[in-house]
Design a protein that fits this description.
Blueprint lengths: L4 E6 L3 E8 L2 E9 L6 H4 L4 H20 L4 E6 L1 H5 L3 H12 L4 E2 L2 H12 L9 E6 L4 E6 L3 E7 L3 H8 L7 H22 L5 E5 L1 H10 L7 H4 L3 E3 H13 L2 H5 L12 H15 L3 E5 L3 H10 L1
Parallel strand pairs: 1-4, 4-5, 6-9, 9-11
Antiparallel strand pairs: 1-2, 2-3, 6-7, 7-8, 10-11
Helix pairs in contact: 2-4, 5-13, 6-7, 6-12, 7-12, 8-12, 10-12
Protein name: Exopolyphosphatase
GO molecular function: pyrophosphatase activity
Pfam family, one: Ppx-GppA
Amino acid sequence: MGDAVAAIDCGTNSIRLLITENGRDVERLMRIVRLGAGVDRTGRLDPAAIERTRAALAEYRTLIESHGVTRIRMVATSATRDAANAADFHDMVRATLGRPAEVITGTEEAALSFGGAVTGLDGTGPYLVVDIGGGSTEFVRGHRAVDSSISMDIGCVRMTERHLPTDPPTAAQLDAATRDIDAAVSAALAHVGTGPATLVGVAGTVTTLAGIALGLDHYDPARIHHSVLPAATVERLAAQLSAMDHDARAAIPVMHPGRVDVIIAGGLILREIMRQTGFSEIVVSEHDILDGIAASIRH
């Protein structure tokens, strides 16, 4: 596989693998490992979370080797930037993958997300890309390259742990989460600007909401990619999900089991972004930081 590359994105909630050859996806996998579980409260990575990540990474290494790929880049984001015992994670990665993970800054994360998200979109922008992760959300404005970006410590795992302890959450808990998110979104938009743009959303919260809005009976990336979510639909889904209990959310056909507990917070984050930007819709992209990582290896 002369042109094959393997990209690994290890975030707060999930670890994902993309193997491409000649621009074609060979493997695209996700495992929910919750590496960042508890980090907002304890400042440390849980040993059980590191072990879940190790098991997924061992699976990925087997796949990478089976395809004969030698050009590999693994990027670690929010959780490993915050943790006091990050060395334990990095020792595990070197032992399991045979090479280190790169801990990238929020600025680097934003640039990789933007590069992946705008691939395949018509025109030259401007685009405002929002990447709602587990620990952080990136806001990136640009045309074909990044003009401005910022990473804020609001993510679906972090907000769930900080504000939504009951299931379903109470009105007071939802209000507290919304105030926290509202302040962060306001600060982010003051930094990147709020001028005319195409709003593009990436990562699991946005793609899951799109799947629900489309009424899919199973998760179908081809249907979700470049679909459009109206702001009114985001408002409706955020309200509906916030009122559902765990079992009701788990019964939604497109809902990944690892997203059931954090989709409410994710919906609140997207709702506040839509409210504050004033955009009437958001374009949903299945291409994100993982595609940006793969492209960075090829270039």
